[in-house]
Amino acid sequence: MAQKPSIPKGTRDFGQVEMARRNYIFDTIKSVFCLYGFQQIETPAMENLSTLMGKYGEEGDKLLFRIQNSGEKAALAPEKGLRYDLTVPFARYVVQHREEISFPFKRFQIQPVWRADRPQKGRYREFYQCDVDVIGSNSLLGELELVQIVEEVYRRLGIRVCLHINNRKILAGIAEVIGAPDKIIDITVAIDKLDKIGVEAVNAELAERGLSEKAVKALQPILNLAGTTAEKLTALRTILVNSEIGLKGVAELEELFGLIEATGVQLNIELDLCLARGLNYYTGAIFEVKALDAQIGSITGGGRYDNLTGIFGMPDVSGVGISFGADRIYDVLTELDLFPKELQSATRVLFATFGDAELHYALGWAKALRAQKIAVEVYPEPTKMKKQMGYADAKQIPYVAIVGGDEMAQNKVMLKEMASGEQKLATLEELCTIL
Amino acid sequence: MAQKPSIPKGTRDFGQVEMARRNYIFDTIKSVFCLYGFQQIETPAMENLSTLMGKYGEEGDKLLFRIQNSGEKAALAPEKGLRYDLTVPFARYVVQHREEISFPFKRFQIQPVWRADRPQKGRYREFYQCDVDVIGSNSLLGELELVQIVEEVYRRLGIRVCLHINNRKILAGIAEVIGAPDKIIDITVAIDKLDKIGVEAVNAELAERGLSEKAVKALQPILNLAGTTAEKLTALRTILVNSEIGLKGVAELEELFGLIEATGVQLNIELDLCLARGLNYYTGAIFEVKALDAQIGSITGGGRYDNLTGIFGMPDVSGVGISFGADRIYDVLTELDLFPKELQSATRVLFATFGDAELHYALGWAKALRAQKIAVEVYPEPTKMKKQMGYADAKQIPYVAIVGGDEMAQNKVMLKEMASGEQKLATLEELCTIL
């Protein structure tokens, strides 16, 4: 026999059980998005390479999967690549379709992205992103709704989380007041790693990135700020008193926390000044969600951006968005055993098959049950009872209906509950009620 | 300003309205699949090129999108390509995962495929396929269930269709009795075009493909067979009396039509001897569905295959499947104006925003309504009434709730029905009832 076929490194097949679980995650997230008036869009898997290049840094450019042009006109056709995330295609979409869009534009998008990363545990070359954004409004109601969406999604999934919030304007203010306003990017990239590498390594990195000893020293009280959110914000007002942008960031956070309190959001929320997020298009609030009962890093993240569409020639459009990490949420639900038990099979009953007459009888019942929207299977051929029961077991079908001459004469079936092994005769009406 | 960005030729963006409509199609199809116990799987967008090459004929090989390998080890990595259909990846999946699969394996798969075809009206380089198959059983119950699924899907979508059925064994038998048993492929490929190019062109093509004048002549009565299904089958029994495979095909169709009649399938079904389907892996029943009220060709098609997994070293596994053409179904529903009207926006009510106090009031109501699973939007900033109404119009939101001092004092909102323009004061309970 030939060698077993396989799939490319870093890609995955999803079988029925995994798909049922993935759909549970996607459906939960989608239905919450819809509750807030967000609508779905989709963009093509391939974009012109010119749309993608230069948007993810030098490292990102290298990780783009490129498509070979083929055919006679290959040399003339624009080069293409597979999308690397959903954010740049969304920006491209907004600019390309701006005449059709009614702003503020509330959209969500759930599609795979591809990265030619070195495959490793938990890192794939094809994975889904699940993004929700509102673009075309400066209102902090956008931020509030994303916080409410985080609350509701994780409440429905049963995952206890903490939402970390910061504001890029505060980070810019900090850079300003410690005397290193041009180092904002270096500072945010370095302190983003505080959790992972510790304060000393961050300080070393800051020095390496050209921050003066004085500036690094001035930064320390800010990195170590503690207390309640109100206390932190008050302290920041003092520290940032000479930075206009910093004070604006504080005011934005105060307003957002006010809205959060006014709407009674039930969620652990922490103002986390160490939160920076690597992506440099963020200009306002930034978010990250961590599961409290699993060590897995961020499972949702995002923020406010003021000029995402500027790269495509449409400046001054502000938006805010977050992205749910479906793979990590899957891992958390698995680790904490939180997937609903009844997910695997929609099928409620399998009709076992022993012969032609029984099969025709079963087909009639199956039709009646399906008309009641009850999912039913009829085993396709007469074979050993054990095999048919094994099939029901493997698919976790809760009931098997057995039909013989006696049952047909009485217009009933013998219904076996797989979990208990109990059997009883049932009419069609009784079956509908049980299922 | 920079040039407007665009997307690669032959690809598409799907905006909110299109996505809502596409989801309506996919959800309808999925829920019918689930009613029959089919379960979803997904496979990666990219497959090893060795999995894809040689499976779609020379022409198909040319239409594969290849991915460039990058990085240091590029020359060593296996070449990859984007999937061309869902059938070959499914066969690969079955062989690769055979130890985990419990047969008969009932799966469906809804994912995009890519073909480097010349883009033209209605033909895209990226499009979704929607496949349902049962593999690992010879039972004609598989065929019956697909017929029932076709009936139920188009009943739910409201599209009147005709299901054309034939059997490849009958076509093989015909090739045998007209004395051209080695020409079965040429015959099926040519008569597949009967509807499009007419009988004379088909006869010319048959001659060109090396069929003797005698054989072409012998074929004519078969091409012109008329009458009821029973009459056609009876005539075929006579014509194919000397062909074992031909008679087996007739017997299979008789059994299938028997099952269809016994289960009371309400569907226009035609035994169509001109139906051949181009793909040569079919070995038994073949199907094609045409819309009765739109000229658009086949909107669903498929058939029985006896050795799909043989290409990957796992012989003798029989299956049967069909594929729904989502793009064409979309076009039929559009042409016949059959999409439900309420699809576009899930949002039932928009709260207009005039100031901070009103906003906070609206946020409380929005929270209460969302807890009742009613989709609600709050306009994010105080702006002109006209703009806010325009937003509701564009998203087809049926109600706008207006809040002023009077309403807040009475703990009510002024509810405007957008279609009629009627306004009335409503309490929260009244609002829940109306929405």
Mean pLDDT over the residues of chain A? 92
Oligomer: homodimer
Main beta sheet of chain A: 8 strands, mixed
Radius of gyration of chain A: 28 Å
The amount of beta strand of chain A, in percent, is 15-25%
N/C terminus separation of chain A: 45 Å
Give the low-pLDDT segments of chain A: none
Number of strands of chain A: 16
In helices, the fraction of residues of chain A equals 40-55%
Biggest chain contact: A-B, 97 and 97 residues
- Tally of DSSP helical segments of chain A: 16
Corresponding CATH superfamily of the largest domain in chain A: Bira Bifunctional Protein, Domain 2
Q: Provide the spatial order of strands within the biggest beta sheet of chain A.
A: 1-5-6-11-10-9-7-8
Structural class of chain A: alpha+beta
Large-scale geometry of chain A: elongated
The CATH architecture term of the largest domain in chain A is 2-Layer Sandwich
Query: Which fold name corresponds to the CATH topology of the largest domain in chain A?
Result: BirA Bifunctional Protein, domain 2
List keywords for this structure.
homodimer; alpha+beta; BirA Bifunctional Protein, domain 2; Rossmann fold; eight-stranded mixed β-sheet; five-stranded mixed β-sheet; 41% helix
